[in-house]
Amino acid sequence: MSFLSATLSRVKPSPTIAVTTKAQELRAAGHDVIGLGAGEPDFDTPENIRAAGIRAINEGKTRYTAVDGIPELKAAVCAKFARENGLDYTPAQVSVASGGKQILYNALMATLDPGDEVVIPAPYWVSYPDMVLLGGGTPVVVETTLENSFKLTPEQLEAAITPRTKWLIFNSPSNPTGAGYARDELKALTDVLMRHPHVWVMTDDMYEHLVFDGFEFCTPAQVEPGLYDRTLTCNGVSKAYAMTGWRIGYAAGPVELIAAMRKIQSQSTSNPCSISQWAAVEALNGPQDFIETNKAVFQRRRDLVVGMMNATPGITCPTPEGAFYVYPSIAGLIGKTTPQGRAIDSDEAFATALLEEAKVAVVFGAAFGLSPHFRISYATSDEALKEACTRIQTFCASLR
Description:
The chain has 400 residues and is an alpha/beta fold.
């Protein structure tokens, strides 16, 4: 009998972390590796937010807090949802955790029973299916297509829902594709959900502020108020505020669900870092002008990468609405061979060969549930992106 839990056999390590770790190991060994795997802004946390964290330390705000967030941060979250999304919540409807990942995990652990199904559009963030499996549920993966801009259609959603469906996990703009749903596209999906009152919606709005070309972000409960009582609207400060290491995520939803999530958190991590919470108060309540500045940089980088990828034979790269990822197709490269004799028979083989032969680290599409693609994170310098894309072009041109 194995000492380890059988539950553990149902999940796998995060492929994105594995790629980043491999790139770091190669760098440490002296190789000139360009990492395009990490989903992390290369900007420093804004000075006013850093100052708020320092102030919290100097004022002795370093002790335990309420399990799921200080009152000041919950109030800031409520104000953010009202100001930016037109959603009214009370502090009793808000949960704060150690990152957006813990928010999603707590909700799934608090609600899933064996046999419960969770609809997950693919490509998906790598952790969604594994968290569902850890909770004893069954991921129901619905594959989208490049031709449809990687967006779930109402017909696909309708077909995926069964009497056992408990949640739809909805991520817009998407990691890994950057695809964002316009209001009419989202309304078509919420119309389907209104016909199935047993299905709840878990939104992952982490890239809400990183949208381009005038795209207007909206979230399900905002588009369809009838879903308010069965929606958990999740967000965090990691991406837009360049606070990945501070580890603060938050969500708002029905009081009963928030209380259940609090119970889970009380027996796992307890409260998020007190210092980070005070910094997050400043992030949400303080100046927001730097977001537009950073967004313009990301849009420029997006256009650079999309242009260079589409100029590469065998690669097709759609232009995403948001986030800081692109998700090119390598359908035109499958079946080819590298100069070193490696067969490109999958996107994983492509990513492995690209790292070993061209020293560019990307994440293969199968990790996100849709092949043959790979994900580029363009949250790095223009110079690094130009060099990386040039290496990808040279590598692809060398395939025979």
